[in-house]
Amino acid sequence: MEKKRKLTIAKAMSEAIALEMRTSPEVLVMGEDIAKLGGVFGNTQGLLDEFGPDRVRDTPISETAFIGTAVGMAAAGMKPVVELMFVDFFGVCMDAIYNLAAKQSYFSGGNVTCPMVLMTSVGGGYGDAGQHSQALFATFGHLPGLKVVIPSNAYDAKGMMAAAISDPNPVVFMFHKALQGMGWLGTVPRSITHVPEERYTIALDHAHIVREGRDITLVGLGHTVHLALDAAAELEGEGIEAEVIDLRSIAPLDRETIIRSVAKTGALISVDDDYHSYGVGAEILANVAEQDDLHLKAPLKRISYPDIPVPFAPEMEHAVLPNAGKIVTAARKLLKESAHV
Amino acid sequence: MKPLQEQKLWMYEKMVESRHFEDLIKRAYFEGKQPVFNMAKGPLPGEMHLSDGQEPCAVGVCAHLAPQDSVTATHRPHHTAIAKGVNLNAMASEIFGRANGLSGGRGGHMHLFDKAVNFCCSGIIAQGMGPAVGAAMASKLRGQQHVAVAFIGEGAANQGAFHETLNLAAVWNAPVVFVIEDNAYGISVAKRAATAIERNADRAVAYGMPGVFVPGNDPDLVFDVAGEAVARARAGEGPSLIEIETIRLEGHFMGDAEGYRPEGEKDALHARDPIKLYRARLENQDIPPADLDKIEQVAKQRVSAAFEHARQSPAPVSEDAFTTVFA
């Protein structure tokens, strides 16, 4: 029997980066606390020791400067992997991301590319309040020129990181704090998976059907994939077979896989932990609603984070975050009203 | 570091070329925009920021650069692009939004990229500074001696990006030169109303790098100071900050009524037109006027040919809007 290597997403990310650094001298890592500390979220552990301070560079707390610098390095043909510690920090450096990195190819007619990876943590649920707990998927997914991906488990994280570093475009590589595998944050056990030692890639433009089912489609990304899987397990006991799709990427969005699934199940719940309005769920539902040949047995439904800042007190925060129970309740209601159960 | 005669003549030629470029822009820009000014009309829609008067900054610095060296420029980029050797035909085509422009008409005049000479610019104040540090660091990490220059206006010195990148460049000893073209105005706001200190060059002290003020909008002085800064960067001795006193002979953009200028200021500025002054200096240095005439003629012909090329080039098709978003 094959020996299992159980890794966290953090470890899988650093392993993927190390593999790319070994074979490509153009790859380097920059960001706050990514060298000696190995990243606040552990995703650059061991890199400084192996590759040294020229290629694994702690930066000043100057996101505008070092993300802009990464864009210039990428224009020169290097492949910087940069960390923006919390996605909530994008406000101080967004120009470098959406006006420089995202438009470098377009403004040069494809002559100058921008092969860089921007790693950034997302998500709350651990009492860090409204400036360190946001998801902001849609904020980035809305902007042309960026790829925006998020793994739900360690196997995916390694393959998606390899693909992201090899991609000639800027890739915003989000990782969810509830899945990262840092002891101090708590981790969904299912995100810790077997990870092969060798290099492999996972395509950044394909969603992944993680559980097949005929009755309803549950779409999630990152953490909410696990909420959807938990909900699917509970619904199974009631005779409801839920299909669960892990988006893996919101830009590009694998619209086909979602449509195909909904064509089969006739019902959809989108689940994400970003703000509700104009969000990931809105895009997924619109994508399905625009199809004229789908026969839906229930209204489309989105579960997301309400349009409020993330509150500190657990009594408030936990109540407003998506969870498996909310998905189960919504699925029951949709299918009951549709009288197909 | 004094320019050799051939370097002086090169600077003169590039200044004339740049000015003629802007002169032809001026003529084309108002086509279709009269009698009622509508920015969307004519062969050159959109904002247009002319560099008249600021040519010494571009030529004095770029005289020290090779194609492998990188330049990031501002929303007012034509003089810098021309001095850096950007393909003139492709640049003119881009500004006219033609299919054979630098980016096939996707960028326009504020977003000129020419990979062959490592030139780019951005329409957002101070935001080219990070990419310049990146180009410089790429060269350094590869063991090359290429340098990068970030051109900015004096208004950019009040941006966070200015302070962040100066600090980062100093911490990493990046082979980069930061050049402030101080034309005394951020659109309509006078520098003295927006900047807490008299000399932005003094801000270099805060980041442990040399900061040099160049008075008088003088190409030879810019050449001298920039030569030292570029040599310093090439030798691995780190970044420098240069502040050049220059003048903006036109408005912030074309169509700017410039009501914010004190009376008589424009006339005084035109009396200090750096191209006229530089020609007079060259003549005083016994360069035959006929030689200078010849240089002017050749430069102007080159620009006219580029504009002719642009005007005769095909427009992009609308489908082109959807390509090159991703590599």
Automatic annotation (TrEMBL), chain A:
This is Pyruvate/2-oxoglutarate dehydrogenase complex, dehydrogenase component subunit beta. It comes from the Bacteria. NCBIfam families: PRK09212.1. Keywords: Oxidoreductase, Pyruvate, Thiamine pyrophosphate. It holds the Pfam family Transketolase_C. Residues 7-182 form the Transketolase-like pyrimidine-binding domain. Its cofactor is thiamine diphosphate. GO terms for molecular function: oxidoreductase activity. SUPFAM superfamilies: Thiamin diphosphate-binding fold (THDP-binding), TK C-terminal domain-like.
